[in-house]
Specification:
Layout lengths: L4 H13 L2 H8 L3 H15 L4 E4 L3 E4 L1 H21 L10 E8 L3 H15 L3 E8 L1 H10 L4 E5 L7 E9 L2 E5 L9 E2 L1 H5 L2 E5 L2 H12 L7 E5 L2 H9 L5 E3 L14 E6 L6 E8 L6 H16 L7
Helix pairs in contact: 1-2, 1-3, 1-4, 2-3, 5-10
Length: 304
């Protein structure tokens, strides 16, 4: 091989800290050792991995992000190789995990707690983001796994279904439609529809109306799911959503009600997505197993 695991380890530390001095302190080596390892890798690839700014540390180039994403996988495989013959449950390593930002608060901490309980030597680097962010980072190889809805994913990903959900209406407790057991899309279309401004999410919701020949009377966009819920709870419109937290109150304490939709709607999946070109590392396999079990045991987002 024309590179060494030492070079990768040193470069990964520099990428992690964005600073050669901090990387050297973490690995207990000299700063020139870090700089030399990076220069050797850049000579190997014949292009820069880092942008060096005097007094501002270092940052990865777009090519560098791709290389470092692959380097993490190489290091994970090396650790797995070194663990052959040892207790398979006592492995270590790092998982770089992405999660759709509206899902993360409701399921991710509990799954991570289970992973940490069974595999305390595993560290997880978490990245929350919207559909565009997760799709881009998966395509770059910067994320090993992403927990998200099956929307906006690049074509080369493998999807592991975790659950299927049906959209429900989200209404203020005193909304005229709140007294109905099931709400029609036609009735919702007559109201101001509040959608999150993420393109895949908003378009998906509008398509649910379009399939039935309906166009909402007016549409208002909110940046986040919780702002969407607060607008609805305070009477600024209605929403059509899949996610349902445990408490039917907005952040400011206003009550909300969820109602089933009268028309038949396609379900939406929550999935674990990964790049199908690469096998999962042991930490990723552990997270996947716990995520599957967690969703089997309880579906806090399902409409009851």
């Amino acid at each position: 091989m024309k590179f060494s695991l030492r070079q990768l380890r040193y470069a990964l530390a520099a990428a992690k800290h964005g600073n050669l001095t901090l990387a050297a302190e973490e690995l207990h080596v000299s700063q020139p050792s870090i700089s030399t390892a990076i220069s050797e890798l850049e000579a190997l690839f014949a292009q820069p991995l880092f942008v060096r700014q005097r007094g501002l540390g270092v940052s990865l180039t777009p090519f560098g992000r791709t290389v470092m994403a692959r380097a993490k996988r190489v290091m994970a495989e090396a650790r797995s190789f070194a663990d052959i013959g040892t207790d398979s449950s006592d492995f270590s390593g790092e998982l770089v995990l992405g999660c759709y930002e509206d899902l993360a608060p409701y399921c991710l901490p509990q799954i991570l707690r289970r992973v940490h309980h069974d595999h305390p030597q595993v560290t997880v680097e978490m990245h929350e983001g919207d559909f565009e962010y997760l799709g881009k980072r998966l395509a770059e190889g910067a994320l090993e796994l992403a927990l998200t809805y099956d929307l906006g994913l690049p074509p080369n990903v493998q999807r592991t279904p975790l659950c299927q959900l049906t959209a429900h209406a989200l209404l203020a407790a005193d909304h005229p439609l709140a007294g109905e057991t099931r709400v029609s899309l036609h009735a919702l279309a007559e109201c101001n529809l509040v959608v999150t401004e993420q393109i895949h999410s908003a378009q998906h919701v509008l398509d649910l109306f379009n399939v039935h020949g309906l166009t909402p009377h007016s549409v208002q966009r909110a940046r986040s799911f919780e702002f969407q819920r607060s607008l609805v709870a305070n009477g600024f419109g209605v929403a059509l959503t899949y996610t349902r937290p445990f408490g039917d109150h907005s952040y400011d304490g206003q009550p909300l009600v969820c109602r089933a939709i009268r028309e038949a709607l396609p379900t939406q999946r929550i999935v674990l997505a990964c790049d199908q070109r690469y096998p999962l590392t042991p930490p990723a396999e552990a997270f996947k197993a716990h995520a599957i079990n967690w969703f089997k045991e309880r579906l806090p987002f399902a409409l009851t």
